[in-house]
Specification:
two-stranded antiparallel sheet, 2 strands
Length: about 130
């Protein structure tokens, strides 16, 4: 096996250190690590909360049908309500949940970037 080598490109981008929290990230200091961990914690919390909403909503439907058997006999346009909700309505619900997650995650990242205060002359990454 070959020996692993760490390549730090951030050190080569600038000849002078960036001011404030941005420098902490670029230089990979313990403070920068704390900032990144906090962003990861916020993103994980968002993901877990949204996953909980999806699990309770979709996972609760069979429980509703078990506790309220009359709902299984309801039909809309000739399709049974359980089939309609679990087989058809679940997909737009999941797409909406994904859209909401993306919007909120991007907002968290924008808040993080504002907190860090990226210098105006720093190159912008597009991905």
């Amino acid at each position: 096996m070959s020996e692993r080598v760490r390549v730090d490109l951030a050190a080569h981008r600038r000849s002078r250190p960036a001011p404030g929290a941005h420098a902490e990230l670029v230089e990979q200091t313990p403070v920068g690590d704390v900032l990144v961990r906090e962003l990861m914690r916020v993103q994980l919390g968002l993901a877990l909360r949204l996953a909980g909403v999806v699990a309770v909503t979709l996972g609760g439907l069979p429980l509703v049908f078990t506790l309220w058997p009359a709902a299984t006999r309801v039909s809309v346009a000739g399709i049974g309500l359980p089939w309609l909700l679990l087989g058809v309505a679940a997909f737009p619900f999941l797409a909406a949940a994904g859209w909401v997650y993306t919007r909120l995650a991007e907002r968290n990242e924008a808040d993080f970037a504002a907190l860090v205060g990226r210098p105006a002359d720093a190159p912008q990454r597009r991905g």
